[in-house]
């Protein structure tokens, strides 16, 4: 009888422990990736935008209020770009943590600090920052002139995350004088800038796509064959702050 009583107590303890485990939900695909890696035991809900992060213990809510509430989250992680109406509705039922989208290294450090408030994330956040800082220091020895080329003749100018990383390496972003954030480039401007390195970001494998068309101009193809060229994988380009160190290594060609 006493043995059965001990077993019953143990089962109750296990059930209570499982019930007390924090339940987190992500409202952003980049946060899906981050929390799956950093806090897999706490994460019970993801956006559903990438099927690879869905599992038996992790459901897709597709941004629907009813699905999110059905997961009974203790905390919902969002970004400043999520639907404000959804965030306001969720705040009536649970705590919502709205994270910024860093555009510079100062905001990145604030982002890391915000994530470090949670025990499950603190060590990962610190390691994330240390890896990025080490990579930045290692890349500062040789100054280079670079240009990032993207579909539809866009590039990253001043006040963008890419420009911040490039300047932190003591490299020179040749598109920075053209404007802030996304800037438009003509083929003539690309040739005239004459960089030491081209960086391709966001191009799909569909060569026929109109957004990619300018990449295949014979003159630009010739320049790309003559100048060192790096490709930033789509997954890194979609979440450059979450994958900050890998993104930086892709710019350098060491990823």
From TrEMBL:
UniProt-listed Pfam families: Peripla_BP_2 (PF01497)
Annotated signal peptide: 1-20
Domain annotation Fe/B12 periplasmic-binding: ranges: 64-196
Keywords: Signal
Protein name in UniProt: Fe/B12 periplasmic-binding domain-containing protein
Organism: Idiomarina fontislapidosi
Upper classification of the organism: Bacteria, Pseudomonadati, Pseudomonadota, Gammaproteobacteria, Alteromonadales
């Amino acid at each position: 009888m006493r043995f059965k009583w001990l077993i019953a107590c143990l089962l109750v303890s296990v059930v209570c422990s499982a019930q007390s485990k924090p339940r987190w939900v992500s409202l952003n695909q980049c946060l899906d990736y981050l929390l799956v890696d950093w806090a897999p035991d706490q994460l019970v809900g993801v956006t559903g935008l990438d099927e690879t992060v869905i599992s038996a213990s992790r459901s897709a809510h597709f941004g629907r209020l009813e699905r999110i509430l059905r997961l009974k989250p203790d905390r919902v992680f969002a970004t400043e770009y999520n639907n404000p109406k959804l965030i306001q509705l969720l705040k009536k039922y649970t705590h919502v943590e709205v994270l910024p989208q860093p555009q510079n290294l100062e905001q990145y450090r604030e982002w890391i600090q915000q994530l470090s408030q949670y025990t499950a994330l603190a060590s990962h956040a610190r390691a994330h920052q240390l890896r990025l800082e080490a990579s930045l220091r290692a890349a500062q020895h040789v100054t280079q002139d670079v240009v990032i080329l993207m579909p539809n003749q866009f590039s990253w100018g001043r006040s963008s995350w890419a420009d911040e990383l490039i300047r932190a390496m003591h490299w020179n972003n040749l598109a920075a004088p053209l404007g802030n954030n996304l800037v438009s480039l003509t083929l003539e401007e690309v040739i005239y800038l004459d960089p030491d390195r081209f960086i391709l970001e966001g191009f799909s494998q569909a060569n026929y796509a109109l957004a990619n068309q300018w990449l295949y101009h014979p003159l630009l193809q010739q320049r790309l064959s003559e100048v060192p060229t790096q490709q930033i994988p789509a997954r890194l380009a979609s979440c450059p702050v979450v994958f900050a160190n890998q993104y930086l290594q892709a710019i350098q060609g060491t990823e």
